[in-house]
Amino acid sequence: MDITITNYVLVPPATAIPHHLLWLSNIDLYTKMHSVTAYLYKPVQHSDMQAVCQTLREALSKVLVHFYPLAGRLITDETARISVNCNSEGVLFLEAFTDLKIDDLEDFESSSELQS
């Protein structure tokens, strides 16, 4: 399975968010998991994929205004407390293409190839 990443960019919130730190609660610190999400779409016939990706980036940017901590970074302070640095750095947005068809994936389950 060949997957070609054609573009990657950090998408910041659409409007400026005041820079601040959010301390994580003890419950936040207890759970140690990371979720990787892949969205797969069947293209509309003769669709302009650059325009589709641009629309998705703009929508993500608008959503991040309301969910701005997701556009920040985790940091550890001098007391080893973990916080979210709400710096509006942005969320990584990848554009990728493959010669596979969605139907080829059948009952799609995440594989190590997609996680690399």
TrEMBL record:
<dbReference type="Pfam" id="PF02458">
    <property type="entry name" value="Transferase"/>
</dbReference>
<dbReference type="GO" id="GO:0016747">
    <property type="term" value="F:acyltransferase activity, transferring groups other than amino-acyl groups"/>
</dbReference>
<dbReference type="InterPro" id="IPR023213">
    <property type="entry name" value="CAT-like_dom_sf"/>
</dbReference>
<protein>
    <submittedName>
        <fullName>Uncharacterized protein</fullName>
    </submittedName>
</protein>
<dbReference type="InterPro" id="IPR050317">
    <property type="entry name" value="Plant_Fungal_Acyltransferase"/>
</dbReference>
<keyword id="KW-0808">Transferase</keyword>
<comment type="similarity">
    <text>Belongs to the plant acyltransferase family.</text>
</comment>
